[in-house]
Amino acid sequence: MGKIKVGVIGTGFIGPAHIEALRRLGSVDVAALAECSDEVARAKAEALGIEEYYGDYKQLLKKGDIQSVHICSPNYLHYEMAKETLEAGKHVICEKPLAISVAEAEELVELADKKGLVNAVNFNIRYYPLMRQVRTMVEKGDVGNIFAVQGSYLQDWLFYQIDYNWRLEPERSGESRAVADIGSHWMDLIEYVTGLRIKEVCADFATFHKIRKKPLKPVETYAGKVLQPEDYEDMPINTEDYATVLFRFENDGRGVMTVNQVAAGRKNRLYFEMDGSKQSIAWESEKPNQIWIGRRDGNNEVMMRDPSLVYPETRTLIDYPGGHNEGFPDTFKQLFKEVYAHISGDRSGPASFPTFKDGLREIALCEAVMNSNRKRAWVKVG
Ligand SMILES: NC(=O)c1ccc[n+]([C@@H]2O[C@H](COP(=O)([O-])OP(=O)(O)OC[C@H]3O[C@@H](n4cnc5c(N)ncnc54)[C@H](O)[C@@H]3O)[C@@H](O)[C@H]2O)c1
């Protein structure tokens, strides 16, 4: 049987991670890419070893042999690209966030249903194998009733005032930054592992760098040069560097999340701890191959990712033996493995992977969080 032909739109940071993971599946051929211009597309195609390239994604969508498309462009483009991809009759794997507003995301969910095409949103953190183990432990009753969940997602790549990226511009990234960019991963993961829905939120945002220094030319232009003050312009910042959000879950459990993109030394650290009526579980993304299990009446335990130790439900996400660590790139491979099993027809029925409905859910959560911060009050999730 021939390989499934795939196109990738956007090949900055995360596009190549998709391409690498797709190639590891074996059943897929990354046949084409699209970028923001012909020049960039040509350079990226050469660097990534992809034969066909386009400076306009609409040209890629016209190709009849491409069956599925990965959308890895900046946030504000996701809606129109996903919509046109579905209209072209192709399956879609979209980076998060699925869209900028609830209305856009609802339209995409409806269109994907109508077309009967496979649709996924890349909430890849669910695919660290031990996250499925935690979900399975909760489902089997090992944790008991969940009283509380607390945690954070911290980064330092926007620590300095001169750190700049399109994510700082609401017209390209959306009205929320830290919550939409990384808080969305935390909330998606927590709803996934606990099986509980967040019912109400109460948020407090802060912007520590109220003015940032935007380079006047693309940063690569300056590679190897020392920047002078005249190489920057002052940009007022309207999105949050930081947020703390309180949660009430549907079981009346409580939660709290802190997100911060200016936390020195925290490169990309998602952490959570859930406290249940039988035991507690904690995990952090910078040490993804272990979970901590806390007990009142016995020894605490560190469980290692090892196919011989986990529940069978988890084993399908583990490709290497214990001690042979799997990490960030493997989460993409495992997510795509489940998506492409549906695209190829090897698997049917309800999706085990995050779909456009999950993408919509995250945008609804982010909107509730933003409303709460604006109103300085508790807000119900719509
Ligand atoms: N799931 C994750 O862990 C994860 C991690 C990082 C980024 N992301 C998401 O991936 C998306 C991209 O983020 P990134 O960090 O790779 O950004 P990036 O800026 O590094 O890359 C974006 C790419 O899109 C290209 N692009 C811009 N306009 C385009 C157009 N009209 N047509 C085709 N290509 C176009 C840019 O030239 C660039 O190469 C964002 O939505 C982000 O939220 C997800």
Task: Describe the structure concisely.
With 382 residues, the chain is an alpha/beta fold. Helix content is 32%, strand content 25%. It folds into two domains: 4-117, 3-Layer(aba) Sandwich (Rossmann fold), CATH 3.40.50; 125-380, 2-Layer Sandwich (Dihydrodipicolinate Reductase, domain 2).
Write up this protein:
The mean pLDDT is 96. This protein has two domains: 4-117, Rossmann fold; 125-380, Dihydrodipicolinate Reductase, domain 2. The relative contact order is 0.16. It starts with a strand and ends with a strand. Helices cover 32% and strands 25% of the residues. Helix 1 (14-25) crosses helix 10, helix 4 runs parallel beside helix 5 and helix 6 crosses helix 8. It is built from eleven helices and 17 strands. The chain is of the alpha/beta class and 382 residues long. Nicotinamide-adenine-dinucleotide (NAD) is lined by residues 9-15, 34-36, 40, 57, 72-75, 77, 95-96, 122, 124, 166.
Q: Give the tally of β-strands.
A: 17
Which CATH architecture of the largest domain would you pick? 2-Layer Sandwich
- State the helix count: 11
Give the low-confidence spans.
none
The general outline is: globular
- At the first level of CATH, the class of the largest domain is Alpha Beta
Helix content: 25-40%
The secondary structure category is alpha/beta
CATH homologous superfamily grouping of the largest domain: Dihydrodipicolinate Reductase, domain 2
Query: What is the third-level CATH name, the topology of the largest domain?
Result: Dihydrodipicolinate Reductase, domain 2
Bound molecules: nicotinamide-adenine-dinucleotide
Order of helices and strands: EHEHEHEHEHEHEHHEEEEEEEEEHHHE
Strand fraction equals 25-35%
Please give the alpha-carbon distance between the first and last residues.
Answer: 45 Å
Query: Which strand order spans the largest sheet, edge to edge or round the barrel?
Result: 16-15-14-13-7-12-11-8-17
Q: Nearest-angstrom radius of gyration?
A: 21 Å
pLDDT average, as an integer? 96
